[in-house]
Q: What sequence folds into this?
């Protein structure tokens, strides 16, 4: 029986069986999350030049406050468009002190 015990123990070890010892859960690292895009005002872009939204969004991503402010100053009197550009100014950090 003494010769059989090491073989049985080795078999239990290799198969992962244990005497009631719980196994620790695998460590997980939190997934990196990207900040959610803020909800934006819906603009009827069909009323404007084809590239208008793209340009506003690019200037926002680049943080070009002067360009965004100029776009706001010369924009047509459309409350939704003005809100969109104002949101762009906020997102670009133009109102930060």
A:
């Amino acid at each position: 029986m003494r010769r059989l015990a090491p073989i049985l123990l080795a078999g239990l070890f290799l198969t992962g069986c244990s005497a009631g010892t719980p196994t620790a859960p695998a460590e997980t690292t939190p997934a990196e999350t990207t900040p959610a895009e803020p909800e934006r005002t819906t603009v009827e872009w069909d009323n404007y030049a084809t590239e208008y939204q793209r340009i506003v969004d690019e200037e926002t991503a680049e943080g070009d406050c002067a360009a965004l402010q100029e776009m706001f100053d010369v924009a047509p009197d459309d409350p939704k468009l003005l809100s969109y550009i104002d949101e762009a100014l906020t997102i670009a950090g133009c109102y930060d002190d």
User: Anything to note?
Assistant: The chain is about 45% helix and 0% strand. Confidence is low (pLDDT under 50) at residues 4-15.
